[in-house]
Amino acid sequence: MNGVEFAWASGRGAYRLPVAVAGTGMHLPDTVITNAELTETLDTTEEWIVAHTGITERRRLPSQLATSDMCVAAAHPALAAAGLAAADLDAIIVASYTYDQPLPSTALIVKHALGAHRAIAMDVTQAACAAGIHALLIGAHLLQDPGIGSVLVIAADCASRVTDPADRATAVFFGDAAAAVVLTGTSADGAGLLAHHIGSELSYAVRIPAGGSRLPSSSHTVTAGQHYLRMDGREVRQVATARLPESIASAVGRAGLGIGQIDHFFLHQANLNIIRQTLVQLGVRPEKAPVTVDKLGNTGAAGMLTALHQTWHQGRLRSGDTYVLSAIGAGFHWGSLCFRHGLCFRYGLCSGTAYVSGTADVWLSRRLASVRRPR
Question: Measuring CA to CA, which residue among 301, 270, 299, 371 is closest to residue 28?
Fold first, then answer.
């Protein structure tokens, strides 16, 4: 197989990290962009967009807000669902390729805004839509340190800031969103991260050419549109529909399970056609894989966690359930995590207690009213 793969299992079913999702949260910007609106400026039709992507609408973040603002808004309900205060957190990991700015760290901005004063702040970047997989895997391993009891993982992307509004190949796909999970230890027998699979292979099929050390920002790169995301959609689909099923099957097999024994599949919400083809190749019924891409678009690293959040807050993720999180992103990076859900160490049953909007909405309203752009 081309590229690099890594999967850890000391024998079939023998590898388990005792971690659990203790709470989830999500933030969606208020502004909705419909397909009809896009057809006013792009050479496309509503029918073409739906047929090729399955997307009917997507969200846009207000221009005066940034990725970190979405992160904070998603973190509040996740913490509330887990019964934790920000001051209790031991680590915060932000997965995003649309960070606020090159420096300082977006995770550190989020840590400061939340008041998580003692938390380690870490950023996972440049794995694009697969960054959430990397962040969750890092978080699960951090929890093996006896001094770390809770990790907040936030996946957020503001793709509207890096897509060319005149480029049909990207403008119809992407939406802005953030989703968060709180990871803790679990004492439930057999619960935790059962196995994982990680793969990568260098490709420039999805790229942002300028802004780094190879092609620094300049008036020329801005004029040439080289800070926008460019994507070869055909290659992305070919690679995604090959790698995602392979990765999922590998992780599930290394957990000592069969595909039919998995209760939920939380997949990267790139494109409805990719999701459907992946499920067909695996022989999985569609109802096992919740879909958010139709109403949110491709929300990058946040996508699979928006699907997890939806299931969690509908009360459909129960103790003992098995589930897979899987994504692929630019690079290419791809990976899958296989979990069994269980009791949260210290916090009782992780059952998806509903969160009534309040704290996050009030915070974001105040932020929107008071935000000032850095000079």
Answer: 299
Domain-located, residue 368: no
- Tell me the pLDDT tens digit for each residue of 60-71: 999 999 999 999
Token readout for 1 is: 């197989």
CATH number at residue 248: 3.40.47.10
375 domain residue, yes or no = no
Its domain, for residue 166, covers 4-352
Is the pLDDT at 209 greater than 70? The verdict is yes
Bridge partners for 153 per DSSP: 93, 181
Given the residues 268, 309, 313, 341, select the one marked as catalytic: 268
Does 298 participate in catalysis according to the annotation?
Answer: yes
State the catalytic residue, choosing from 134, 298, 333, 344: 298
Annotated catalytic residue: which of 71, 129, 158, 338? 129
pLDDT at 10 over 80: no
**Residue 349 — very low, low, confident or very high, per pLDDT cuts 50/70/90?**
very low
User: Does 66 reside within a domain?
Assistant: yes
**pLDDT above 80: residue 36:** yes
Number of domains in the chain: 1
Please provide the DSSP assignment of 240-275 as one string: HHHHHHHHHHHHHHHTT--GGG--EEEE--S-HHHH
Q: Assess whether 350 carries a catalytic annotation.
A: no
Active site residue 158: no
119-142 average pLDDT score:
98
